[in-house]
Amino acid sequence: MSELLDRLLGGDATLWPAGNVSGNRLGWLAVPERMHAEAKDLGSWAASIDASHVYLLGMGGSSLGSEVLRASFGNRRLVVVDTTDPATISNADISDPFFLVSSKSGTTLEVDCLLSYFWERWPEPKRYAAITDPGTPLATLAEERGFHRVFSNPPDIGGRYSVLSYFGMVPAALMAIDVARLCDAALAADKEDGVRLGVAMGDAAKEGRDKVTIVVPEHFRSFGLWVEQLIAESTGKRGTGCVPVPSTEAEPGDDRHVVLLEMDDDYQLGTEFMLWEVATAVAGHILQIDPFDEPNVAESKANTKKVLTSLPLPAVQSADPATVSTWLKETVRPSDYVSLQAYLPFGQDDALEGLRRAVRDGLGGTATTAGYGPRFLHSTGQLHKGGPNEVVAVQIAPRAPTAHVEIPGKPYDFGTLIDAQAIGDLQSLESHGRRVLRVEVNDLKEVS
Questions:
Q1: I need a surface site. Which of 109, 185, 290, 367 has the fewest CB within 10 A?
Q2: Could you read off the pLDDT of 1-34 as tens digits, one per residue?
């Protein structure tokens, strides 16, 4: 184990297949030290921000870590807006806002649209800050507009490994979380434990137990959002991968590799972030894939762009929501997993989790995951398209737009955008021969 850790810490690219991108993707190993050194400055800056709510405009890896911190610490000041659902966007209370615009590439479509929308309503530069890589279009725009501050993140950190960088620590500071203490927890992590976890995950997957079932205490339920996208996007490629199944209760099965997390302190999240990043990188070594690239993520984005350039939206076949259970029972095979993909307004977490458990139990314990689109396009979607052909997807779309919200400068509104994203993802899944059923609902209770 120590040899593997030494190679990882030494940046040994031969841990992974030839042509891997690790040469500019290992900055996450050292970034807690830098953030610890900057903790006082981050805290002072955050304390100077006088606003009732902070809206984090992001997508995928740039936002899910912050959502975990927000939910676990019980903070009500930060609102993570990583969706294009018009109802969620229009319901934001922006009477006294501060906006944190987060995008590694600085070109993320969703973030660009969200920024355009909120800027039209609050064109005050001092109410904005940006987190991005050096020299991106977002960095240039933020400087030109005179944003309150631009945080230039180390460019050698991929989005899904970025929670302990500015992408997670700036929102943490704005929530009055002790950044130094969080970084202390990350620095105290026993990385050899992370190596052992990664080896066990990879070996289990090779033996057919590829459903990594991560059981977390109810208080840390949101941790599943982050660890799911980390593992799925990192390992789901070349027809293999670890399928993360976050849960708050034990889920046995012949295809399961169960990991029980004992967590009783919010700041322990710093330790878990580091451990799982190490584990995921090592699992990539065991599976002989590159855990830092995302070869299939661009497909759904390209499909979305194609749909948006040939409006109106194409007709898409949708099934009766009442037939989902029957279709699943006819379709699911041993070793499959079900992915429930809800392109619906936020705020339905309990209903979505209830549906996940109902599907799981109705299929005799089949591994089942659930979450909101369009996050799938940026993270777990890599596993669905590039991993083993074990996914049985149910795409749940709204029967009608949830609201009408225009996007300044675009020939389409948010309702059209999220529909195009769902359609683009559907096309991508189908092009890879994945089994997928689309249904349209007014309420999740219609799915049965």
A1: 109
A2: 789 999 999 999 999 999 999 999 999 999 999 9
